[in-house]
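Box S1 | Example of a co-folding query
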Amino acid sequence: MTITLTPLPYAEAALEPAISAATLAIHHGKHHKAYVDKTNALVAGTGLADAPLEAIVLDAVARKDGKLFNQSAQAWNHGFYWHSLTPESSQPGSELAAAITGSFGSLDDMLTKLVDEGLGHFGSGWAWLMAEGNALSITTTHDAGCPLGQAARPLLVVDVWEHAYYLDRKNDRGAYLKAALSLLNWRFADENFARSTAWTYPELTTSA
Ligand SMILES: [Fe+2]
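Box S1 (continued) | Returned holo structure for fe (ii) ion
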């Protein structure tokens, strides 16, 4: 059993014009696939060979195995990112909407903060909408930084690595972030907000 590449939950062209099919083809088929393949290569023949992806990431954290962490966390983050976007229009459900208002003032204020934090993040990384109870926050992580194992749980994430937007936007990360706002999958965020556990995302850990 090995971890497998999370299938895109939509067609490669489904997020156009915000994110092009060419970007998704390379981002998913090359970048994400490479993280999955390298994770499998690193755990082959070890006690983690049959482990789900979350367990691999958490084991790498516990053993301070940076090489395995970088590959496995990137594999997980990308699976979460694909599900954080959708071509279907959506809005936060009533419980999440109330938490957003309580934490940020309004949905527009939250979205502005997501763009600002993503734009202000230095170098490669991720911009997350996180929840700890009903307290929501926007945080960024560097490189492969991943929230698995933290008390706060992720609701949505936007990839701010250059490979997420450079083909479409060149160096204009802000334009990518603003375009991505209309794609946020609030149904997925609602599901994550309702979870009682911090990191059980079975749809991201399919195995062969
Ligand atoms: Fe990426």
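Helices lie at 21-43, 53-62, 66-84, 94-104, 107-120, 166-169, 173-181, 186-194. The pocket of fe (ii) ion is lined by residues 27, 31, 78, 159, 161, 163-164 (CB under 6 Å).
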